[in-house]
C-alpha cells in the first residue's frame, strides 16, 4: 500500500492546487501551486512520510520518460522549426551558456560578499 | 495482418506501449554508450516514435490517446518536486539570500536571453513565446507556454534540448570561468538546465546534484509566478510597435 498512499497524496495536492488556481484565477499551473502547498505542509509537519518519499522518488526517477509524449508533438511543428531553425538554435545555445555562466558568477560573488 | 495493425494503431494500448518500448530502447542505448548526455533517452525515444508514426501513417492525436497516460503523470511529478526541496531545507535556510537572488536573476536571464536572441534573428512570435520558458522543467514550462500564447508541444522539445545543452556544456563552462564551488555550479545548472542538468549534476557530485534539484524546483515556482506577467507586459509594448 505505501506507493498507493504516496501517489494518492501527490494527486490530492495537485487537485487542491488545480482547484485553487481555477477559483482564484492565479497565473500559475495547478501542479506548481500543489508543489508549493506540499512543501509548506512538509515544513509544518516536520517530517517526510515514507510513503510520500517512495512515490516521489519513483516518479522523479523516471521523470525523463514523462517528457516523451509531449516531445513527439514536435512532429506537428516541423514547418515552424524549419523556418526558424537558426534563431531557435542560437537562442537555445547562446541563451543557455549566458544563463549558466552569469548565474554562476553572480552567485559566486554573492557568497563571497556574504562571508 | 493489415486489420490487426489498423485495430492496434487506433487503440490507446498502442500509444502507451510504443512510448514505453521506445524509451526503454533509448535508455538501453544511452547506458550502452557510457551515459553520454548527447544520447539522451528522450531524444532517441522521440525520434523512434516519430519514425514509427510516419511509417505507420498514424496521426499524433491517435498516438496521444494512449501516450496521455504517461503525459498525465507530469502533474503529480511536479507536485513531487516538493520532496527534494524539503530534503534541502537546512541548506536552504543557510544560503537562502544568495540562492534567491541568483535564482531570480537566472530565471529572468534564461527567458529574456532566449527571447532577445530569437527576436533579433527574426523568429516568429509563436516561436519566441514558446522559447521563453525553455529553462523551466517541462510540466511547468508547458503550462507557462500555454498561458502566454506559445505552443506547449514545441516548448516541450525546446526544454529538452536546453537541458541537453546545459548537461553537455555546463561543466566545461564552469571550468573556463574558474567556478569551483559545487553549490554555485548546482544552482546555475538547475536554473539554466532543469531536470536534465540536475541528472548530470548528480553524476559530478552529490552536493552539486542536490543544489541543482533545489534550484530547479524553486525556479519552476519563480518562473510560473514571474514569467507570464512579465512577458505579457513586455509584448504588450513590443508587439504593436513591430509589424509582423
Descriptive report:
The complex is a heterodimer of chains A (115) and B (244). Chain A is mostly helical and 115 residues long. Helix content of chain A is 84%, strand content 0%. Chain A is built from six helices and no strands. In chain A, helix 1 crosses helix 2 and helix 1 crosses helix 3 (50-61). Chain A is extended. With 244 residues, chain B is mainly alpha-helical. Chain B is 84% helix and 0% strand. The longest helix of chain B is centred in the last third of the chain and has 36 residues, at 206-241. Chain B is globular, with a radius of gyration of 19 Å. The termini of chain B are far apart. In chain B, 54% of the residues are buried. Classes of the chains: A mainly alpha (115), B mainly alpha (244). At the A-B interface, helix 1, helix 2, helix 3, helix 4 and helix 5 of A face helix 2, helix 3, helix 4, helix 5 and helix 6 of B.
List keywords for this structure.
heterodimer; A: 115 residues; mainly alpha; extended; B: 244 residues; 0% strand; globular
Quick gist of this model?
Chain A is mainly alpha-helical. Chain A is 84% helix and 0% strand. Chain A has helices at 2-24, 30-45, 50-61, 63-66, 68-72, 78-114.
Number of helix segments of chain A?
6
Report the average pLDDT across residues of chain B.
Answer: 88
DSSP summary: helix tally of chain B = 12
Strand count of chain A = 0
Order of helix and strand elements from N to C terminus of chain B: HHHHHHHHHHHH
Largest interface: A-B, 71 and 107 residues
Structural class of chain A: mainly alpha
Write the layout of secondary structure elements.
The complex is a heterodimer of chains A (115) and B (244).
Chain A: H1 2-24, H2 30-45, H3 50-61, H4 63-66, H5 68-72, H6 78-114
Chain B: H1 2-9, H2 12-32, H3 41-56, H4 60-71, H5 74-80, H6 82-87, H7 89-120, H8 125-131, H9 138-148, H10 152-176, H11 182-204, H12 206-241
Helix pairs in contact in B: 2-3, 2-4, 7-8, 7-11, 7-12, 9-10, 9-12, 10-11, 11-12
Amino acid at each position: 500500500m505505501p506507493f498507493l498512499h504516496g501517489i494518492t497524496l501527490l494527486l490530492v495536492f495537485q487537485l487542491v492546487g488545480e482547484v485553487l488556481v481555477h477559483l482564484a484565477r492565479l497565473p500559475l499551473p495547478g501542479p506548481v501551486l500543489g508543489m508549493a502547498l506540499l512543501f509548506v505542509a512538509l515544513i509544518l509537519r516536520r517530517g517526510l512520510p515514507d510513503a510520500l518519499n517512495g512515490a516521489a522518488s519513483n516518479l522523479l526517477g523516471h521523470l525523463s520518460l514523462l517528457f516523451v509524449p509531449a516531445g513527439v508533438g514536435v512532429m506537428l511543428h516541423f514547418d515552424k522549426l524549419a523556418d526558424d531553425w537558426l534563431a531557435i538554435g542560437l537562442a537555445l545555445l547562446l541563451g543557455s551558456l549566458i544563463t549558466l555562466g552569469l548565474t554562476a558568477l553572480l552567485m559566486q560573488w554573492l557568497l563571497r560578499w556574504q562571508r | 495482418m493489415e486489420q490487426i495493425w489498423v485495430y492496434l494503431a487506433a487503440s490507446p494500448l498502442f500509444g502507451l506501449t510504443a512510448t514505453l518500448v521506445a524509451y526503454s530502447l533509448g535508455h538501453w542505448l544511452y547506458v550502452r554508450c557510457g551515459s553520454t548526455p548527447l544520447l539522451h533517452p528522450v531524444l532517441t525515444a522521440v525520434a523512434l516514435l516519430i519514425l514509427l508514426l510516419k511509417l505507420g501513417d498514424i496521426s499524433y492525436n491517435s498516438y496521444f490517446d494512449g501516450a496521455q497516460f504517461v503525459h498525465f503523470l507530469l502533474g503529480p511529478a511536479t507536485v513531487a518536486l516538493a520532496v527534494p526541496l524539503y530534503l534541502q531545507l537546512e541548506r536552504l535556510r543557510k544560503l537562502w539570500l544568495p540562492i534567491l537572488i541568483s535564482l531570480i536573476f537566472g530565471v529572468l536571464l534564461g527567458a529574456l536571453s532566449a527571447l532577445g536572441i530569437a527576436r533579433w534573428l527574426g523568429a516568429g512570435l509563436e516561436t519566441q513565446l514558446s522559447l521563453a520558458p525553455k529553462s523551466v522543467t517541462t510540466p511547468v514550462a508547458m503550462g507557462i507556454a500555454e498561458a502566454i500564447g506559445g505552443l506547449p508541444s514545441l516548448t516541450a522539445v525546446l526544454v529538452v534540448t536546453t537541458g541537453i545543452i546545459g548537461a553537455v556544456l555546463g561543466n566545461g563552462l564552469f571550468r573556463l570561468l574558474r567556478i569551483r564551488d559545487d553549490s554555485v555550479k548546482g544552482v546555475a545548472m538547475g536554473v539554466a538546465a532543469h531536470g536534465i542538468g540536475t541528472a548530470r549534476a548528480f553524476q559530478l557530485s552529490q552536493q552539486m546534484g542536490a543544489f541543482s534539484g533545489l534550484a530547479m524546483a524553486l525556479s519552476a515556482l519563480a518562473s510560473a509566478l514571474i514569467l507570464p506577467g512579465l512577458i505579457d507586459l513586455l509584448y504588450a509594448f513590443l508587439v504593436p510597435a513591430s509589424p509582423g
